[in-house]
C-alpha cells in the first residue's frame, strides 16, 4: 500500500515569494520606465517637444508689405500696386508635377510661356516653396479651380500685390523696374543681413529709383501666427504683427514735362535732362527710345526680350547715366570762363579768324570756310567760332583743361541718387597712359589737345554730367549733387520729409569773367548772329544757351562734310544747352539728339518747348509736336495720388489748367482737376546767388550798334566742327566710363 506524497509547504512558499518578487519587480520596472520616459518628455525635454507640437499646430506666415508708391512732383502716379490672384504649386506636395500641370490646363489656361517661366523658377527654388505658374487669374478662373481644388494637392490660389507702371514707358529709365529676386541678389541680401526682411518676397528693384531706393520702397515684413489642422489648413489666427508698407517717394520729375520731352523726340534716339540749378532737382530725365517696364515684372517673354535686346537703337540703355557723348561746342563756355579766370585770354582779346587753325601741316577747319572775321570772347561764344577755341586749347594744354573742367563735374560721378552712373572720359596725359597699352599709343600729341577745344577728341560725357555742369555755370559756381527723389514719406508720422540739397563743390568764379560768358550765351539765343536765334527770337523771356554738333566719324583733310552722302548712323549728333530766365535761372536743359545734324535745328526746338512749358505753362499743340518730332503724340491716363491710395495729402497734387490749343495727348485725363499749386523751390541757405547781368536794354543797344558796324559776321550753322579726329576710342576702356555713342 502506497502512502500519498506529502507537499513541501516551505518550498512552495519560497517559490511563490520568488514569483511574487519577480512580478513586483517587473511592475516596478515598467512603472519606472514609464516615469522615466515621462520625466524625459515632460521635464527634461518639455520645452523642445512643446515647441515642436506648437509648430505642428501653429504656422508662422510672413506678411509681405505693400511696396511704396512713386509719384511725380505734382502727385501723378508713376508706380503703383494692384491685387490679383496667382495659381501656385508646391512641388513637394504634388502627386506628380508633370501630371498636375497637365490636369491644370483643363481648368485654367496655362500658356507655354507660363510653363517655361515656372520651370525656370523651379530651378531657382526649393521643392517646399510655392512657385507661381499663372498670374492675374480672372474671377471665373478662380471659381473653376476652387470647385475642383480637391483634385490638386499642393496647388493653391493666393492673392498677391503686383507692381504696375500705369504710364507705361514714360520715364522708364529714371523710375526703373522690379523683377524676381535672382540667386545672386538673394545671396547679397543674406550677406547684408536683410534676408529676413525678404522672407517670402518674390520681387526686388532692378534699376532706377526702384533699385536705388529699394530699402525705403520695400517696407518691413510682418507675420501672422495661424493655427492649422492635421492637413495644414488654417483654422484660426492667433496673433499677428502687421507689415509696415514701403514709403511713398515723391520725385522731382514733372511727368507732364517728361511726356512732352519724349513726345518731342518721337522715334529719334537721344537724351534730355532738365534741372533746377538752384537745388539740383532733376525735372526731366528722358532717355530715348524707351521700353515698357511692365514687361519685366513677372518675367519677360522671349519674343519681347529678343525684340528689345536686338533693337539697334538699344532702348534698354539708360543714355542719361550710362551713355557717353562728345559735348561738341557746348563745351566752349567752360573753356571760356576758365581761360578768362586763369588769364589765358582777356575779354577784349581779338583775333582775325581765317576759317582754320594750322598746327604744323595739319589744318583744323572751322564750320565757316571763310572764317568769322574779327572775333573776341563774346563773339566766339555767340557764333560758335571753332578757330578761337582751337587756339585756346592749344595754348592751355590738356592737363590744364582737365584740371579746370573737372571742377564742373566733367569726368566725375555727379552723385545723383540713382545707381549705375558712368564716369565718362575727361582726358589727360595720365589718363591716356592708363588707357592704352603700348608706349606709342600712350604718348599725348598736340593735335589731340586742339580737338578738345571744341569738345571733340577723347571727350565723352554723360548727359547728366552736361546738365550738372550747365547748372553749375547757371547759378554762378555751386555744383549740387543732382537728385531725382524730392520727398520721402516718413512711415511713423505719415508726413513727407524733403531730401536735402547737397553741394558737391563751390567754384569761386570772378563775376566779371562769368558775365562775359553769360552775355555770350545770351547772344546765342537773342542776337542777330546767335546760332539759336531763329528758335528763340519770339520768346517772351531771356535765355542763355549754346548749340553744339558732335562728329561721330573722321572727316579727311581734303574732304567736306556732306550729310546727304552719309548713312543715318554716321550723321552728327545735335546738342543744345540752355538756362532761363537768363538773369535768374530756374531751369536748365541739356539735350542730345543722336545723328540729327545741327544742334540749332534739331535740338534747340525741343528745349524751347520745354522752357515754354516750365516758365509759361504753355503746352504745344499736337501739330506743333508732330512738326518737331515727326510723330503724333499719344495720350496717357494721368492719375493723381490721393486719400483713396492711403496717402497723406501730397503737396501740389493737382493738374495745370489746360492752355488753349495745347496738346490733347499731354492734357489727357487731367482737365477736370483743380489748378496746380506748384511746390516752392527753396534756395538752400548759404547758396550764393548768381551774378546778375547788366541792363538788358543796354546790352541790346550795344549789340545793335556792333551789328551796324559790321563787326559780327553771321554764322550760318550751329558750330559743327570739320576736322580729322585723333583716336576717338581707346583700347582699354575702364568699366565705369559708360557706353560711347
Quick structural overview:
By secondary structure, the protein is an alpha+beta fold.
Explain what the structure shows.
The chain is elongated. It is built from 25 helices and 25 strands. Strands 2, 3, 4, 5, 10, 19 and 20 form a seven-stranded mixed beta sheet that branches. Strands 12-11-24-23-22 form a five-stranded antiparallel beta sheet, with helices on both faces. The termini are far apart. The chain is α+β, with helices and mostly antiparallel strands and 741 residues long.
Question: What topology emerges from the helices and strands here?
Answer:
Layout lengths: L8 H36 L1 H12 E6 L6 E2 L5 E13 L7 H8 L7 H11 L8 E7 L1 H9 L7 E10 L7 H4 L1 E4 L2 H9 L11 E5 H5 L1 H5 L3 E7 L5 E8 L7 E3 L3 H11 L4 E6 L6 E7 L13 H9 L12 E2 L7 H10 L9 E3 L2 E4 L2 E4 L7 E3 L1 H6 L3 H11 L1 H8 L23 H7 L3 H4 L3 H7 L10 H12 L3 E3 L4 E6 L4 E4 L4 E4 L4 H16 L6 H4 L7 E7 L22 E8 L6 E7 L5 H4 L1 H13 L5 H8 L66 H14 L29 E2 L1
Parallel strand pairs: 2-10, 13-25
Antiparallel strand pairs: 1-8, 2-3, 3-4, 3-5, 6-7, 8-9, 10-19, 11-12, 11-24, 14-17, 15-16, 18-21, 19-20, 22-23, 23-24
Helix pairs in contact: 10-23, 10-24, 12-14, 12-20, 14-18
Amino acid at each position: 500500500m502506497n502512502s500519498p506524497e506529502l507537499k513541501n509547504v516551505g518550498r512552495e512558499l519560497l517559490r511563490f515569494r520568488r514569483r511574487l518578487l519577480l512580478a513586483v519587480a517587473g511592475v516596478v520596472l515598467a512603472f519606472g520606465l514609464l516615469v522615466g520616459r515621462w520625466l524625459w518628455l515632460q521635464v527634461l525635454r518639455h520645452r523642445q517637444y512643446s515647441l515642436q507640437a506648437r509648430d505642428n499646430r501653429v504656422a508662422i506666415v510672413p506678411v509681405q508689405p505693400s511696396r511704396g508708391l512713386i509719384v511725380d512732383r505734382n502727385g501723378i502716379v508713376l508706380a503703383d500696386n494692384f491685387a490679383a490672384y496667382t495659381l501656385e504649386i508646391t512641388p513637394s506636395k504634388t502627386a506628380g508635377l508633370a501630371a498636375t500641370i497637365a490636369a491644370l490646363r483643363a481648368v485654367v489656361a496655362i500658356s507655354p510661356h507660363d510653363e517655361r517661366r515656372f520651370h525656370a523658377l523651379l530651378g531657382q527654388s526649393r521643392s517646399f516653396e510655392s512657385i507661381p505658374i499663372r498670374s492675374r487669374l480672372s474671377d471665373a478662373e478662380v471659381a473653376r479651380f476652387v470647385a475642383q481644388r480637391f483634385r490638386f494637392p499642393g496647388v493653391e490660389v493666393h492673392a498677391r500685390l503686383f507692381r504696375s507702371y500705369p504710364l507705361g514707358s514714360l520715364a522708364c529709365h529714371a523710375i526703373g523696374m522690379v523683377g524676381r529676386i535672382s540667386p545672386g541678389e538673394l545671396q547679397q541680401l543674406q550677406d547684408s543681413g536683410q534676408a529676413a526682411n525678404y522672407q517670402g518676397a518674390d520681387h526686388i528693384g532692378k534699376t532706377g529709383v526702384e533699385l536705388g531706393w529699394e530699402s525705403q520702397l520695400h517696407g518691413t515684413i510682418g507675420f501672422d501666427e495661424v493655427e492649422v489642422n492635421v492637413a495644414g489648413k488654417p483654422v484660426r489666427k492667433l496673433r499677428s504683427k502687421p507689415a509696415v508698407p514701403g514709403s511713398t517717394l515723391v520725385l522731382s520729375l514733372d511727368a507732364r514735362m517728361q511726356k512732352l520731352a519724349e513726345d518731342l523726340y518721337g522715334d529719334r534716339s537721344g537724351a534730355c535732362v532738365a534741372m533746377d540749378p538752384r537745388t539740383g532737382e532733376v525735372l526731366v530725365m528722358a532717355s530715348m527710345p524707351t521700353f515698357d517696364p511692365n514687361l519685366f515684372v513677372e518675367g519677360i517673354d522671349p519674343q519681347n526680350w529678343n525684340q528689345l535686346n536686338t533693337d539697334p537703337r538699344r532702348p534698354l540703355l539708360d543714355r542719361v547715366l550710362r551713355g557717353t557723348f562728345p559735348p561738341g561746342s557746348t563745351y566752349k563756355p567752360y573753356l571760356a570762363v576758365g581761360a578768362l579766370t586763369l588769364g589765358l585770354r582777356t575779354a577784349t582779346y581779338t583775333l582775325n579768324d581765317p576759317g582754320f587753325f594750322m598746327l604744323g601741316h595739319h589744318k583744323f577747319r572751322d564750320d565757316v570756310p571763310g572764317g568769322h572775321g574779327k572775333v573776341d570772347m563774346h563773339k566766339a561764344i555767340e557764333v560758335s567760332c571753332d578757330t578761337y577755341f582751337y587756339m585756346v586749347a592749344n595754348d592751355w594744354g590738356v592737363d590744364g583743361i582737365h584740371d579746370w573742367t573737372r571742377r564742373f563735374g566733367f569726368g566725375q560721378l555727379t552723385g545723383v541718387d540713382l545707381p549705375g552712373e558712368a564716369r565718362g572720359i575727361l582726358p589727360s596725359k595720365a589718363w591716356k597712359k592708363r588707357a592704352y597699352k603700348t608706349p606709342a599709343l600712350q604718348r599725348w600729341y598736340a593735335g589731340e589737345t586742339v580737338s578738345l577745344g571744341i569738345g571733340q577728341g577723347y571727350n565723352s560725357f554723360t548727359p547728366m554730367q552736361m546738365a550738372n555742369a550747365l547748372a553749375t555755370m547757371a547759378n554762378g559756381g555751386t555744383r549740387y549733387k543732382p537728385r531725382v527723389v524730392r520727398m520721402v514719406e516718413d512711415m511713423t508720422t505719415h508726413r513727407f520729409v524733403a531730401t536735402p540739397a547737397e553741394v558737391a563743390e563751390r567754384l569761386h568764379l570772378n563775376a566779371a569773367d562769368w558775365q562775359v560768358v553769360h552775355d555770350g550765351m545770351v547772344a546765342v539765343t537773342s542776337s542777330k548772329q546767335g546760332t539759336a536765334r531763329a528758335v528763340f527770337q519770339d520768346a517772351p523771356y531771356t535765355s542763355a544757351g549754346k548749340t553744339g554738333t558732335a562728329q561721330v566719324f573722321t572727316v579727311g583733310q581734303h574732304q567736306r562734310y556732306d550729310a546727304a552722302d552719309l548713312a543715318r548712323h554716321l550723321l552728327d549728333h545735335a546738342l543744345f544747352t540752355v538756362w532761363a530766365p537768363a538773369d535768374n535761372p530756374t531751369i536748365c536743359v541739356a539735350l542730345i539728339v543722336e545723328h540729327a545734324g545741327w544742334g540749332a535745328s534739331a535740338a534747340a526746338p525741343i528745349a524751347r518747348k520745354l522752357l515754354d512749358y516750365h516758365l509759361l505753362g504753355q503746352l504745344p499743340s499736337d501739330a506743333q509736336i508732330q512738326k518737331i518730332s515727326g510723330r503724333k503724340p499719344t495720350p496717357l491716363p494721368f492719375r493723381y495720388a490721393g486719400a483713396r491710395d492711403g496717402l497723406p495729402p501730397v503737396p501740389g497734387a493737382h493738374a495745370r489748367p489746360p492752355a488753349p490749343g495745347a496738346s490733347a495727348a499731354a492734357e489727357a485725363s487731367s482737365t477736370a482737376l483743380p489748378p496746380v499749386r506748384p511746390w516752392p523751390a527753396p534756395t538752400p541757405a548759404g547758396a550764393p546767388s548768381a551774378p546778375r547781368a547788366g541792363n538788358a536794354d543796354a546790352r541790346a543797344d550795344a549789340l545793335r550798334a556792333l551789328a551796324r558796324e559790321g563787326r559780327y559776321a553771321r554764322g550760318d550753322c550751329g558750330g559743327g566742327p570739320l576736322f580729322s579726329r585723333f583716336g576717338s576710342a581707346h583700347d582699354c576702356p575702364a568699366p565705369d566710363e559708360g557706353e560711347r555713342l
